[in-house]
Amino acid sequence: MPESESHALAAEMDLLWGADDHGRPAGPPLAAVGVGSRADELPSGFGLIMETLGRRRPVMITSCLSYLISPGSPRPVPPDLELHTSTEPPTAALRGLRPDPEWPVDEWDDLLGGRLGPWAIAVGPERIVALATTPRDRLGTAEVGVWTHPEHRGRRYAELVVGAWAAVAGRTRNLLFYSHFDDNPASAAVARKLGARPIGRIWQLRNVDSSAADLAPGQDH
Question: Does 125 sit behind a cis peptide bond, omega within 30 degrees of 0 on the bond before it?
């Protein structure tokens, strides 16, 4: 039976701001609400909450569009790329291709060592061109985070690594989530090409000094 939008959004919010299976901290918002895929307007009463809390501190409202990803079938790998996933031991060459400064050394070692959940990495000549990781992982649910090298964007590499990530993560997880900010058409295109199912929008009220990782844990690095 298809997952209801309300149940899926509630599960994603628990995933984003609940305990993580790998011990990573979460930065919960001051307030949050999930609304169905047909609701684009600010939820009733959310503006009043912002006005009330804003009298004491600078606050802001953000929203992310959310999707469910099906494991599906892996995308074909272009002949000029190599695709690696967390199902295989990382090679020494892959370890040496750490994106810098996006990934600190210790975090990169934890990722490749399987201590941060599933991953998929596309490697081109001399560099990583795209990678999909698991910034949040909890009780059979996971959120994908995707990064593409600035010089290799627009080539559907994000679609390639997210599809490979979903094939791996879907073996042991029931719900796979993908999300992006309203003003990110590239991420919206990835969701569309993957056939991801829109489930709605998560509105957040946060302090203005919140980190990018807190605002959208799925959009790491």
Answer: no
What is the C-alpha to C-alpha distance for residues 175 and 8, in angstroms, rounded to an integer?
8
**Could you say which DSSP state residue 152 is in?**
G
Note the pLDDT tens digit of each residue in 35-53: 886 667 788 788 788 878 7
- Tokens read off for 202: 């998560």
Model confidence pTM above 0.70: yes
Return d(Cα 6, Cα 12) in angstroms, integer: 10
Instruction: State the pLDDT at residue 57.
Output: 78
**Sheet hosting strand 175-181, strand order edge to edge:** 31-35, 197-207, 59-68, 175-181, 141-148, 127-138, 120-124, 82-85
Q: Please give the Cα distance from 136 to 148 (Å, whole number).
A: 19
Which residues of 69-174 form beta strands (DSSP E)? 82-85, 120-124, 127-138, 141-148
Distance CA 191, CA 187 (A): 6
